From TrEMBL:
<keyword id="KW-0547">Nucleotide-binding</keyword>
<dbReference type="GO" id="GO:0007165">
    <property type="term" value="P:signal transduction"/>
</dbReference>
<dbReference type="Pfam" id="PF13855">
    <property type="entry name" value="LRR_8"/>
</dbReference>
<feature type="region of interest" description="Disordered">
    <location>
        <begin position="1"/>
        <end position="25"/>
    </location>
</feature>
<dbReference type="GO" id="GO:0016787">
    <property type="term" value="F:hydrolase activity"/>
</dbReference>
<keyword id="KW-0520">NAD</keyword>
<feature type="compositionally biased region" description="Polar residues">
    <location>
        <begin position="1"/>
        <end position="13"/>
    </location>
</feature>
<dbReference type="InterPro" id="IPR000157">
    <property type="entry name" value="TIR_dom"/>
</dbReference>
<dbReference type="InterPro" id="IPR032675">
    <property type="entry name" value="LRR_dom_sf"/>
</dbReference>
<comment type="similarity">
    <text>Belongs to the disease resistance NB-LRR family.</text>
</comment>
<dbReference type="GO" id="GO:0005524">
    <property type="term" value="F:ATP binding"/>
</dbReference>
<dbReference type="GO" id="GO:0043531">
    <property type="term" value="F:ADP binding"/>
</dbReference>
<feature type="compositionally biased region" description="Basic and acidic residues">
    <location>
        <begin position="89"/>
        <end position="99"/>
    </location>
</feature>
<dbReference type="InterPro" id="IPR057135">
    <property type="entry name" value="At4g27190-like_LRR"/>
</dbReference>
<keyword id="KW-0067">ATP-binding</keyword>
<dbReference type="Pfam" id="PF00931">
    <property type="entry name" value="NB-ARC"/>
</dbReference>
<dbReference type="InterPro" id="IPR027417">
    <property type="entry name" value="P-loop_NTPase"/>
</dbReference>
């Protein structure tokens, strides 16, 4: 059963196919059905309510499962103004499961924060609200499932713009600006547009639609836009500054790549073009890129796997099959196999989208639903799992050809509970469900049509995999070979066991191999269903770990939820608390834990994290074995783990068990029991629960407790008794304490070594912390803390790591009008209230053991202290700025995580003291100048700061003095400069005219691999000239964007040309260079771009061609070529009379996109040439092509590209240029 849109909406949409010949005043007649609605919002809500009703009714008809409970919920939904449109935020969820969309289109960077809305619609209601916009909104919101904000209120004359509108803009990923005839007549529209341009600084986030107006009318305020501003001036309601901001916003939006309604025959075509453009940009990361980002290099198709894969592919191709089940023993490779099948099915064109969710033994429906919904590019808004299931089911019903993979199902699951339609509906949409399980009975209960087993490997394949993972080869005539074959046979053909045992024994001697063989034969398992093969193999790998720390760290990983990204830093801090990693200092302990983690990964006992390189994961089978290993010799359980089970009450735990660790993290437990009777308990992990207090009696018997984590709970009161928690070594309080907390107990925890209290809510740091004289690590990173009392930090004589990036920046200042009572700062109204002094900076410099420091300060004056010893700050992240916005951005970003030593300043190096130069700047790896008005010549900074180890340099404007980045004529250099610099970012340096004046010494910039220049609008002539090009021979990535006057990217003298090779340049992005005439000024060396793989050119309005044929013939490595919105581009490759008949082959080109090139006539040729360029151009490996709005492109080459385009499922939109995060405060478009 398939639902369609209402007849009214359908009729109105069909009228959009009529020609656009009458202009905007006559469009209303095409949309009578839409106009019949009283209010737009009421129509939307009614459609959604009807969807919810139909979803439940259809589920009942198809699955026979309608209940009175569902009826009552639907009634409640209908009465609450459409539950699918509520704007309540989702509960906090740790959904780290990636979406599996194989669409090759680009999307927002993965690092982009989650926004409430996908799209914000900006429009003039009088022009288009009730006709065109209603259908655009319907297509985006209800057909494509994008969260779309469309205001339904008509603002009264003189009323201020609604704050909710401004907030909605901030919470949107993209904006569609419908520039209609009277758009500029509305001051609110213009204010809205200004806010959009301010918030959406990243590329490709603003999409203008020129609705019966010309782009030039908008850009230069002509015609109706000129009249509108005339009226604004006459009425005198708005200041000249405000009018200028509006004009600038119109100019900015008109320069974006957009859509002109006049280029399309019907309004339906306009809507489709806009919707496709938006959907291509908001689409999430695909399964193929996720798989390629993981370590799947070990995946091999053996005989058993090949048979299963072939059977699955046949089932996927069979139109009569809807649900497919794959079953096999744990560790057999089911998950890896179906992921690769998903990729292959997408490549073969069987499905438009593929998504995967892990069900696991204790399913979290909220997370599963969120993961499956993300493939549609939306965020579920339902308040509970039932509402989210309704939303998800509605979305899946609207799509076709979706492959849904449900991995690791333990028992029968109702698809409707998740939000997946039943088999009949899936079949009607040409969609399929593929599930994996350990048990064939699950396949039966889920009505799988083919039930496909994965068998164990044959002995020959087992030996092949085993030998590969040992890292050695065995001669068949040796004893070693015979023993190794016996060991391999004991692994019973299980890939997981084969790899684990092989890596454990790889470098061992013959006697150890013989011992391992005997142990494998004698080993028994507590899991009868796996016949012992998995358990004994993994247990052997564990036994062969060389140190107790390795074994203990392995068991620590079992305390985290299944399939969870485990922070290595948490393993370090928990481990130190438990007594592991007893190295001499924190740095050595950190090195030890990283070494241990690597050995566990090498032994196949841990996996890389999914999303974060500082994380690891544990396979669920290995985790189960870990629990068995943790049993004591007398059979008592040492671990009690119910992490991520969504428990709503404290579980019943057998007090007779001698538990040493209890992990109940990530549940919904509201309170602790009155008494916890676990005298042996050392580790208690309760983070991310709902509990709000800890009773003294709860901890009365926990005398051995060494590690406590209550982060992200609602706990406001700690135990007040002085004899509790005194054995603690590690305490996590991140984001859990309130202003009322009785934090005086902190001073009593004398054994504490690790204290983390990020997001501490008070303005003043408690004085009691100064009593923790054994503390080795302290973290109070927080926006709230603004006062650090004197001598608190200075008393922590053993402190090795201090993380205090907060609002405390004025070191050694007076705190007036406050009295300190215990740990609570009370404002005093009494005249002559006492004064106190905040911490002095020399408290930091006096800490003999301090090795890691993250700190803010307002200026360099607070560092005017006498430092008489050599500081040993190994890692640091220091921000010196009087601008709170710079500090806040630094606190919110993770831009310094890639570098151990980072410095951010708005001052120059000559203002810093010598001790600071020695301790910090000469060892800095990443340096950011932000709004540094006194910065005049970066070479002077290099000398003053002795920046010899610098790897990353960012200069972020505005700046009024830096006209030349490097000038050797006024600051002579005899030695190489920036020899270790790898990345150079220049952002909005508004006065910069040239990058380099004069000659740099040899070996300068010799390691620079990335150059990004953005928004430097006064850069003129060529970006890279011969004096700089000669030094950039290791440049790999060049990104140049948002320039007003730049005419060339490269330029060099004739006699220098052949010395320039750029032999490592692989990626080049040139975007919004409105005055660019040529990429290379002068004779370009033929092989200069020989290694370029990715080339993106967009918004270069004066460019007539990209390369000459001589250069193009050397583009042997080019794989991805995208050209967009170049208004004067006539040819991609320019041929001379001598070369016009030469054949050009792009041997590796896979992706070619040509978009909005109105003057493009041919791909390859010369002016006046009649040569058939199809005969002289070849793309032997072309997989994807996209030709759009190239109306003059009539050559046979176009037919060839279009024929390729018709064979692919999805067109390829332009990629976003900002592949690498660049810190920026504001960006002029």
């Amino acid at each position: 059963m398939t639902r369609t849109v209402s007849s009214g909406a359908s009729n109105a949409m069909s009228k959009m196919d009529e020609p656009l010949k009458r202009g905007s005043n006559d469009i209303g007649c095409y949309f009578e059905e839409a106009k019949a609605k009283k209010k737009q919002k009421a129509r939307h809500e009614e459609e959604v309510r009807e969807e919810v009703r139909v979803i439940v009714q259809e589920d009942a008809e198809i699955e026979g499962q309608k209940t009175k409970q569902q009826d009552s919920i639907v009634i409640q939904l209908m009465e609450s103004s459409s539950a699918l449109m509520v704007e309540n935020p989702e509960p906090k969820s740790e959904d780290h499961q990636e979406s599996m969309d194989l669409d090759p289109s680009t999307s927002l960077p993965s690092s982009a924060p989650l926004k409430k809305y996908d799209v914000f619609l900006s429009f003039r209601g009088a022009d288009s609200r009730k006709d065109f916009l209603s259908h655009l909104h319907h297509e985006l919101r209800y057909v494509r499932g994008l969260q779309t904000f469309m205001d339904d209120k008509e603002l009264e004359l003189g009323a201020p713009i609604y704050p909710s509108l401004l907030k909605a803009i901030e919470e949107s990923n993209f904006a569609i600006v419908v520039l209609s005839k009277d758009y500029a007549q509305s001051a609110w529209c213009l204010e809205e547009l200004t806010k959009i341009c301010e918030c959406m600084k990243d590329n490709n986030r603003i999409i203008p639609l020129f609705y019966h107006v010309e782009p030039t009318d908008v850009r230069y305020q002509k015609c109706s836009f000129r009249d509108a501003f005339t009226n604004h001036v006459k009425n005198g309601w708005h200041s000249s500054e405000q009018l200028q901001r509006w004009k600038k916003a119109l100019e900015t939006v008109a320069n974006f790549s957009g859509c002109n309604a006049k280029d399309y025959k019907t309004e339906r075509e306009v809507v489709e073009a806009i919707v496709e453009s938006v959907c291509g940009r908001v689409r999430p990361i695909g399964i193929e890129s996720i798989i390629s980002s993981r370590d799947f290099g070990d995946f091999e198709v053996f005989e058993a796997t090949r048979e299963a894969m072939d059977n699955v592919m046949k089932a996927l191709e069979d139109e009569n099959v809807t649900i497919i089940g794959v079953y096999g023993m744990p560790g057999i490779g089911k998950t890896t196999m179906v992921e690769h099948v998903g990729v292959e099915a997408q490549k073969k064109g069987l499905f438009r989208q593929v998504t995967r969710a892990v069900i696991s033994q204790k399913p979290n429906l909220w997370k599963i639903q969120g993961r499956l919904a993300s493939m549609l590019g939306v965020t579920l808004r339902g308040a509970d799992e039932f509402e989210r299931a309704c939303e998800l089911m509605s979305m899946i019903r609207r799509r076709e050809r979706i492959l849904i993979i449900l991995d690791d199902i333990w028992t029968k699951r109702e698809l409707s509970d998740i939000g997946i339609p039943g088999p009949k509906e899936l079949k009607s949409r040409n969609s399929k469900l593929l599930l994996t399980t350990r048990n064939k009975d699950v396949c039966d209960s889920m009505h799988c049509q083919p039930r496909i087993p994965i068998d164990i490997l044959t002995e020959q394949d087992s030996w092949k995999l085993f030998e590969k993972n040992t890292g050695k080869s065995f001669e068949q005539t040796t004893k070693f070979y015979r023993v190794a074959r016996k060991v391999a046979r004991e692994c019973a053909g299980l890939p997981l066991a084969l790899k684990a045992v092989a890596k454990a024994l790889g470098n061992k001697d013959l006697d150890q191999w013989r011992g391992a063989c005997k142990r494998l034969k004698a080993s028994k398992t507590p899991y009868p269903e796996d016949k012992g093969d998995v358990f004994k193999s993994i247990k052997l790998s564990y036994d062969y770990l060389e140190t107790n720390d390795s074994k203990s760290c392995f068991l620590l990983c079992c305390l985290f939820p299944e399939d969870y990204d485990i922070q290595i830093e948490d393993l370090l801090k928990y481990g130190i608390g438990k007594g592991l990693f007893q190295e001499s200092d924190m740095q050595e302990a950190r090195a030890a834990v990283h070494s241990v983690v690597q050995s566990l990964k090498d032994s196949n006992l841990l996996l890389d994290g999914k999303m974060d390189r500082g994380c690891v994961r544990m396979h669920d089978v290995i985790r189960d074995v870990g629990f068995s290993i943790s049993l004591s010799k007398d059979g008592h359980r040492q671990f009690y783990v119910r992490a991520g089970w969504e428990l709503e009450d404290w579980p019943t735990i057998d007090a007779h068990e001698y538990y040493t660790a209890i992990s109940l993290m990530r549940n919904k437990i509201p309170e602790l029991p009155e008494v916890l009777e676990f005298p042996e308990l050392q580790i208690l992990l309760l983070q991310s629960n709902s509990m709000n207090k800890i009773l003294d009696s709860s901890f009365k018997h926990l005398t051995a407790l060494r590690v406590l984590d209550i982060s992200e709970t609602s706990i406001s009161l700690l135990p007040s008794s002085s004899n509790l928690l005194t054995s603690l070594h590690t305490l996590y309080l991140d984001g859990c304490l309130s202003m009322e907390s009785n934090i005086s107990i902190l001073g009593q925890l004398k054994e504490l070594k690790i204290l983390s209290m990020r997001e501490f809510p008070r303005e003043k740091l408690p004085k009691e912390i100064g009593e923790l004289t054994k503390l080795r690590m302290l973290d109070f990173t927080s926006e709230s803390v603004g006062i650090v009392p004197c001598n608190v930090i200075g008393n922590l004589s053993k402190l090795e790591e201090l993380y205090m990036q907060c609002n405390f920046v004025d070191w050694g200042s007076k705190v007036e009008g406050s009295e300190v009572k215990g740990s609570v700062v009370e404002e005093s109204k009494a005249v002559g209230a006492g004064e106190e002094t905040t911490a002095l900076f020399d408290e930091l410099t006096s800490l003999l053991h301090l090795r890691i420091l993250k700190v803010f300060m307002s200026d360099a004056k607070c560092m005017h202290v006498n430092v008489r010893r050599k500081l040993k700050w190994i890692n640091f992240d220091i921000c010196i700025s009087g601008d709170p916005s710079i500090r806040k951005q630094h606190l919110d970003s993770s831009s310094s995580l890639d570098y151990a030593r980072a410095l951010t300043v708005d001052i120059t190096m000559d203002t810093l003291q010598k001790w600071f130069i020695d301790a910090v700047t000469k060892r800095t790896e990443k340096l950011q100048y932000i709004k540094c008005q006194d910065l005049g010549n970066i070479l002077m900074e290099y000398d003053w700061g002795r920046l010899h180890k610098l790897k990353h340099l960012s200069v972020i404007g505005p700046n009024e003095k830096l006209k030349e980045l490097m000038n050797t004529t006024i600051w002579i250099q005899n030695e190489p400069v920036f020899q270790n610099l790898e990345e150079l970012h220049l952002v909005e340096v508004n006065c910069l005219k040239e990058l380099c004046v004069g000659e740099l010494p040899n070996e300068s910039l010799c390691k620079l691999r990335l150059l990004k220049v953005t928004g430097c609008h006064k850069l003129m002539n060529a970006l890279l000239q011969s004096n700089l090009l000669q030094r950039l021979q290791n440049l790999e990535i060049l990104i140049c964007e948002e320039m007003d006057v730049l005419e060339y990217v490269f330029a060099c003298e004739v006699f220098d040309a052949e010395q320039i090779t750029l032999r490592k340049l692989t990626e080049m992005r040139l975007e919004n260079l409105v005055n660019l005439i040529k990429i290379w000024n002068g004779p370009a060396p033929h092989a200069v771009f020989h290694h370029v793989k990715i080339l993106v050119v967009s918004g270069c309005f004066k460019l007539k061609y990209l390369f000459t044929s001589e250069v193009a013939q050397c583009l042997h490595e080019l794989e991805d070529l995208r050209v967009e919105v170049c208004q004067r581009l006539e040819r991609v490759i320019e041929a001379s009379e001598e070369t016009v008949n030469n054949k050009i082959v792009f041997p590796k080109l896979k992706i070619l996109a040509l978009k909005q090139l109105p003057k493009l006539t041919r791909f390859y040729g010369s002016t006046g040439s009649g040569t058939n360029d199809e005969e002289n151009i070849e793309f032997p490996l072309l997989e994807h092509s996209h030709v759009e709005r190239c109306n003059s492109f009539k050559s046979p080459a176009k037919d060839m590209l279009v024929s390729v385009m018709k064979k692919q499922l999805v067109l390829i939109p332009m990629q976003e240029s900002d592949r690498r995060e660049t810190p920026t405060l504001s960006r002029r478009r």
